[in-house]
Structure formats: structure tokens, C-alpha cells
Amino acid sequence: MRTWKDMLKAADADILAWAAEQPWAEPMRRCGQDAEWHAEGDVWTHTGMVYNQVTRLEGYADLTRVEQVILLFVALLHDAGKPDTTVLDPETGRTRSPKHSMVGAAMAREILRALKCDLQTREHIVNLVRYHGRPPYLLEKQEPELEVVKLSCLLSNRLLYLFALADTRGRHTKEMSRPEDTLHLWRDTATELGCFTHMYPFANEQARFLFHRGELTSLHYTPHVDYRCTVTMMSALPGAGKDTWLARERPDLPVVSLDAVREDLDVEATDNQGTVIQAAREQCREHLRVHRDFAFNATSITAQLRKRWIDLFADYGARVEIIYLEPELSTILRQNKQRQKDVPETVIRRLSEKVEIPTLAEAHAVSWIVPG
Questions:
Q1: Which residues of 60-92 are buried (b: 16+ CB within 10 A; e: fewer)?
Q2: 271 pLDDT more than 90
Q3: Residue 140 per-residue DSSP state
Q4: Which ranges constitute the DSSP H helices of 225-372?
Q5: How far is CA 356 from the centre of its chain?
Q6: Cα angle vertex 122, ends 116, 125, to 5°?
Q7: Can you give the pTM of this predicted structure?
Q8: Number of folded domains in the chain?
Q9: Is the CB of residue 177 less than 8 Å from the CB of residue 38?
Q10: Quick one: 236 and 360 in the same domain?
Q11: Does some domain include residue 352?
Q12: DSSP code of residue 257
């Protein structure tokens, strides 16, 4: 089995056997866990137990094969980040693995990319791995409903709930530290809010945008929609084809390009970017002040980088759409060499490890495009 399509055709037992031979499985076998939470032992032992519990879930047979394999891969990878994050707490003497879900999510993305998993399914699995530990702690949130609504924009609450059941059952604990009643509360809350199987039904895209920015006063509030203009924000690695896409799909839009600003100011990409950012922000303001649609063209590969610009656009009442391009890395490297000023391959490969795929939690609209 070498591709995602092969996984969809394979038997559950064969997928587990394949995983056991992968290089990322051995570190999991050598990684111990806290005995109070995982009396069963190492991470791989727990992984196998969770995997088997997934196949025994009530309703597993009613899932589509894609949904089944999604859950199986979440089981395989949900704790894959533990070997890199496990430490001994000097105060308690207990083993803990801080931020292992974030590391595991990054690993999942690379593993699934190598399997040529489609972008939509891949990112669904990545988000399930990233947030797999949330349901048991719902009652610890000050506003539990908001937690459920937020995640509905990133993943299926139904699959998250089902995986949480399997994760709870796939372990031996010295005390019942994860009562399933809390997991059922996640299901019931999501069902009541109408976001168990689908994204929460916001009144409009502006309501969703304001919600994720912490600016929506109530889930029942319908904000007035009166966009002053639309900003098309590009997000992709150097050489991915952002200029080409804009020329083909938005030929009439004026473009604020960080590369163009650097060229105008004679600033190298490796130099201090302060003057470049300042000049680009002023160009953006010129469009925003007169309510003119425009495109913002930069790599914008992390949520933090995007937010700085989206904050500016939102301050002027703009609608923000993000266009994320993800060609094959080999295509990006080839196209990069054809540029007048190519980026070193080592830089592109390093940047590719830092990419955070834009989500509907960031903008009014997000499009993921895989150029042919």
C-alpha cells in the first residue's frame, strides 16, 4: 500500500499492519506513558488498542469507507507526536507530553501528503489529530458551547466524538479519569446547536468571521453586511503560481505584491523587511480608503502572518477571501527555478514545514486549490 487510494481499498487489519512497519511507529513503541493514564504501557500499545476500539464503535459499519479510514488514521497518528514531546515533570515525577497533538498534526500532514491523500481529507485528519483531546475537557471551558461551535468550522464533531470514545476505551487506567458522560455531552451540545454533522449554521459569513475574531456578541445576532470592498489574499509557497493564478482568475484586480515592493525599494528578501511592510500597508490603505477591490500577494503561509494583514483589511470593513494554492512540491521547485529571482530550494523546503493551511476561522471565504 503506497497511496491513500490503496488505503481506502485495504482491510482494516492490513492498514494497521502497514502502519506497524512505518518509521514513525518504532519511536512510539519506545515511548513510555504516565501509568495513571496509560497503565497499558507504551504509545504504540495504546495506539493499537484505540485502533481496535474504532472498528468496534457502534455505527462504525454505517460510516462511509472514507470516514472509516479517516478515523483509523486519526487513531494511528493522534499520539504520534508523543516521542518528540514526552518529558518527566521534575516536580511530580510523572510523564507528560505537552503539545504532542500539535506535533502529531504536523506529522500527520507530511505522512498523508506522502500518501497523496487529497487536500480536503488530509486537513480533516490533521485537525482531528490536533484537537482530539478536547471533548473530555468540555466542562472545563467557561463557555462550552463556543468550543463546540469553533471546532465545527474545522472538523466533523461527529467524527471527533466517535474518536474520543475509542480513545477513552483504548487504554487501561488505574482510575476512571475520562468518564464517557462528558463525551456524550459534546455530542448532545453539538446536536442541540446544529453542528454535530455540519458546520454551525451562522447567520451569515460576517457572523462567522466576527465569531472567530471574538467580536460576535451572540450566536443569535445577525450582523449587517455592508462590505466596503473585497480583498483577495493569496497564500502559498514561493513558486506555487500565485501571480499566474491572479492573472488568470482576477485579471482586473490591482495587486499589492510584497515581491514588487521589494523590487521597487531594492530590498532583498533576506534583508530587514520593515520598510517593505510599511510601504505595502500604505498601498493597501490607498485601496481600502476608496473602497477598491484588490489582491494582496505574499506567501502568507502562517495564521499569524495572515492575521496581521486581515486585521488591517477588517478595520476598513473589507470582505476577505483567502486563496490557498498547493501544487506538488516538485512542481513548486521546478517553477521556482524559472523565476527571475528564484528562492533557494533549502528555504522553500524549510518553509513547507511551517505552512499552516488557512481555514474558515480566519476569513469570510477560503478556497483550497490544487493546480493540475
A1: beebeeebbbbbbbbbbbbbbbbbebbeeeeee
A2: no
A3: G
A4: 242-249, 258-265, 274-289, 303-315, 329-337, 345-352
A5: 6
A6: 140
A7: 0.94
A8: 2
A9: no
A10: yes
A11: yes
A12: E
Predicted confidence band of residue 196 (pLDDT cuts 50, 70, 90): very high
CATH at 159: 1.10.3210
Helix (H) or strand (E) holding 350: helix 345-352
Which cell is 315 given?
478595520
Q: What is the model's pLDDT at position 178?
A: 64
- Domain-embedded: residue 175: yes
Is the predicted pLDDT of residue 41 greater than 90, yes or no? no
- Are 133 and 258 in a shared domain? no
Cα–Cα distance between 224 and 236 in angstroms, integer? 32
Per residue in 128-184, pLDDT (tens digit) is 999 999 999 998 888 999 999 999 999 999 999 999 999 999 988 755 456 788 899
Rg (CA), the chain: 23
How far lies 302's CA from each of 21, 328, 335, 361, in Å?
Answer: 33, 19, 22, 13
pLDDT digits (tens, 9 = 90+) for 302-323: 999 999 999 999 999 999 999 9
| 125 and 265, same domain (yes or no) | no
Residues 27 and 107 sit within 8 Å (Cβ to Cβ): no
Q: Place 57 in a pLDDT band, splitting at 50, 70 and 90.
A: very high
Residue 224 in any domain: the answer is no
- List the domain range (segments joined by +) for residue 300: 230-369
pLDDT recorded at residue 49:
96
Q: What is the CATH number of the domain that holds 306?
A: 3.40.50.300
Of 151, 158, 159, nearest to 125 by C-alpha is 159
What is the number of residues in the chain? 372
Assigned C-alpha cell, 368: 483550497
